[in-house]
Input
Amino acid sequence: MYKKICSKYEPTKDNLIHILHEIQDTHPQHYISDEAVEEVSKYLNLPTNHIYGVLTFYSMYSTTPRGKNIIRLCESPPCYIKGSENILRKLKVLLGVETGETSKDGLFTLELSACLGVCGNAPVMMINEDVYGDLTEEKVEEIIEKYRRAQ
Amino acid sequence: MSLKRIDLLICCGSGCVSAGALKIKERFHEVLKEKGMENEINIIETGCMGPCDYGPVMVIYPEGIFYKTVTPEDVSEIVEEHFIKGRPVARLMLSDDERTFSVQKEVPFYQKQIKVALANCGYIDPESLDEYIATGGYEALGTALTEMTPQDVIDVMKAAGLRGRGGGGFPAHIKWQMVHNIQDNEKYIICNGDEGDPGAFMDRSLLEGDPHRILEGMMIAAYAIGASQGFFYIRAEYPLAITRIRDAIEQARGLGLMGKNIFGTDFNFEVEVRTGAGAFVCGEEMALIHSIEGERGNPTPKPPYPATQGLWGKPTVVNNVETLANIPTIMVKGAEWFNTMGTQTSKGTKVFAITGDIRNTGLVEVPMGITLRELIFDVGGGMVGEGKFKAVQLGGPSGGCLTVEHLDVPVDYESLKERGAMMGSGGLIVMNDEKCMVNVAKFFMEFCVEESCGKCSPCRIGLKQMYEILDRITKGQGKEGDIEELQRLGESVKMLSLCGLGQTAPNPVLSTIRYFRDEYESHIRDHSCSTKVCLDLMNFNIDKSRCIGCSLCARKCPTNCITGSREEKYVIHQLECIKCGNCYDVCPVNAIDKIPGMHPEMKEYRAKLQAQKDLDD
Output
């Protein structure tokens, strides 16, 4: 599977970030395994330590398995001013997790993001690639419920 | 294509989409189909119109009627009343105490704005190359390629005096000239779309709302410097922007605007999209270049500058999204026209993202030199809610705070810098008097500590130390000399850091000390946070004369630190209180007050602890 992804790109170092993104996005648990790193290392002819170096530098990559849906709550100042702390507390209660953890049912991983760039509608979170703005505690509950029902 | 009598422009910027714009679009399609009116109304999905707070918004032409906070339930009424009977729906229009603004251009939010970079955002369908061309798109590129030499193009930019819109304000033409002058058959142009500043979202809106404009700007720049390969570096948090730019590139290729012999000339150009993966520091140009190369996004010392040794060691120009967005219009309308806007040293317009405790949050474009007062109170509509204006943070975590006394300062690169703030990428976070400036400074510092790449020690260690001092102060453990230490550390970090992140990260702390020193002092000396934000420096207290003894607070208290009875009334035992605020929220008679300052009991307790600790030591 990893070989197939790699082969879509030229075997040059500058494609590393693209390849890692695709591996992570297509993995059901949204992470990059040791096995994947080995494969990429062979394909790009790069030492694995370089790949881990890159992998751990960028906050969006994960080396541990994550949930089906990745929630990224914005913790930037505009969102903070508009009450993102309450939203975070609500999410923790709803999902029964701390920041960075995955819910027991494997459905959600709760993460924080430096800024999602939708500050006009703060507080904001992204679930996978969908943006949810002007969050209130009630709204968060509805959104999470919607994802749970979608199962 | 049939001619339609009404154009319905629905804002589909990320803000409005998050507020449900797509559902409304679907609903319009359904209702119009039911009524058999599909051929009469043209539904166009546009980029960001600006007033994100009122989303979803839409404009209906020919009249230019502006509707705000539309819900799917309103759609039938709009179709029935407005489209069929010709009576616009007044209740969906923006209004203030005195009047209702029916037409978009009457809305105060738009009145002081001049749209150059944002000209097409919210006006055309960003996914349509035809619409971009219909508004004059690619005319500038055509003229440049067929009638001008690369040096002519640089001369126009020099006369226009366009400065980098990403933060530094470095004149664009100087970078271009440097790379133009170097003889090398491999040169690169990079569009910096790694917009990481919290509170800034103009680059996202531009990439999503008018991708061809950025592409055209990039190609003009490429022609001027002699590059035939370009890169868009866009942060991965912006999936829609990435898709839109990729589509725009393919559309341009389909029409022969990309590839070989563009406009029948010798100019060849190819462009690729690269994405980030969540690192604020990659907005710094050297870090960005390393990231494209497939490395960790660490900055490297300058010189050598990218202009001489950039991507893969080749001459490279890195321009911000908004900078590129200005170029096509400057080329068409000329440097003289561009010079009619702005101040002596800062020409043209600037896009600002207004956020925080302000009525009209959103994206605006105003001429440089506008005062903060006009920007915040006229365009931004003033403060929202009861709070009064206290401060505005310009330029995100690299910028500084300005206060009431600076409201008449003109917004340009130099004026802001003199006062300890900076233009930055144009994020404007407005704060009311309920905000604690020490806490705000701590918050920005925390951001910079997390985002520091760790390569150079002043930034990695210095910022962490500053954060720890700020954290102590907000917890009531500040000491005499802390303010001076923060200033000393801040100046050192600024002077010694390798890249722009460290060189500017102390700004929020230094500027809040400069303008709100009394708040720092009261935190340290009086153990009091006047805004009651810092939980260790405030307390909750039940006023017995107002307490009705209902026991609701005691029942809701998670630490069981409220006791009493109907007769005796209730009290909070301060040492166990975790300041969760539940009691304050549930009290039916508002008998609970938030009081600034540490409670005397707590002070005594802490003093005792300290004495014990001293004894042990």
